Amino acid sequence: MAVKVGIVLAYLVLAPFIGGLLDGLDRIISARMQRRKGPSILQPFYDLGKLFSKQLIAVNNVQLLLNLSYLVILMIAGAMLFSGADLLMVLFILSTADMFLIMAASSDSSPYANMGASREMMQMMAYEPLTLLVAVGFYLTTGSFHVGDIIQQPVSAILWMPGLLVGFMFTAAIKFRKSPFDLSTSHHAHQEMVKGITTEMSGSALAIMNIAEYYEMIVLLGIFFLFFVNSTWWSWIVAFVICLVLFFMETLWDNISARLKWKTVLYGCWVVTLIAGGVNILILMLDR
């Protein structure tokens, strides 16, 4: 029990710092791919400090509350994941957090923010079926939804879930807001809807959202980790290295791809869900 409490506290304290460092690393790698020097790896923390130092000018009274709710729910989801709780419940809580982000973007009258909110909802329709199939795949492979049982299996789940891993990479690209799936917002304000869901967010409200996304990043990498870990000690090292490789692949994907139309994203994710996820689940069910 004490070990679980320690792991949860470590997640709550360290996740935003690790997420910030990964964000800084992502910026450096992207810059090198574009033949630029890029910022310092600590630039995300400088940005957060600048945002918190600004005067809070909210477009309405509820936006900051909704952003805080988004942050707190993601912290709860991560705490459950790293405490070894039910994976299916973790994924449901992640979906709940996204709904608070959508409501925060929809709470003002900006047409760009509202367009971003509608596109965020469209993205949820694209990746939620695959996300649920991942949870079902872990259950069919290990006989349990509980993370504590999954990591104690003698064989890593990836041997039985390669199709679901490919599908979850699509989901992660959407959640990381990487091209070609960055429909609802962008790191740059020169797209057709400016900054999308974050158009009307500034100061502390935007900083809170960024911190929440660092928590979400660690949760998603934690789910990737479950694909490769097993009861042997060395599998933890292998899983950690593979997670870094997958993160690099998401960055590479972001830099070589242009944004897709929402219909292409929706239909493409459903096709991946049907072929990669559905066939993988069917094989697991027939093998039982």
Would you give an account of this structure?
The chain is 73% helix and 0% strand. The chain is mostly helical and 288 residues long. It has one domain (2-287). α1 crosses α8, α4 (87-106) packs antiparallel against α5 and α8 crosses α9 (233-256). The chain is globular and about 55 Å long. The two termini are 33 Å apart. The model has no long low-confidence stretch (mean pLDDT 86).
Q: From the alpha-carbon coordinates, what is the Rg to the nearest angstrom?
A: 19 Å
Q: Main sheet, how many strands, which sense, barrel?
A: none
Strand percent estimate: under 5%
* Residue windows where pLDDT falls under 50 for at least 5 positions: none
- Number of helical regions: 10
- Number of extended strands: 0
Q: How far is the first residue's CA from the last residue's CA? A: 33 Å
Helix percent reads: over 70%
Mean pLDDT reading = 86
Tally of individual domains: 1
**Strand/helix succession:** HHHHHHHHHH
Overall 3D geometry? globular
Kindly name the structural category: mainly alpha
Quick structural summary:
The chain has one domain.
Write the SSE topology.
Elements: H1 2-33, H2 43-53, H3 63-82, H4 87-106, H5 111-142, H6 147-150, H7 162-175, H8 203-228, H9 233-256, H10 262-287
Structural key phrases:
288 residues, mainly alpha
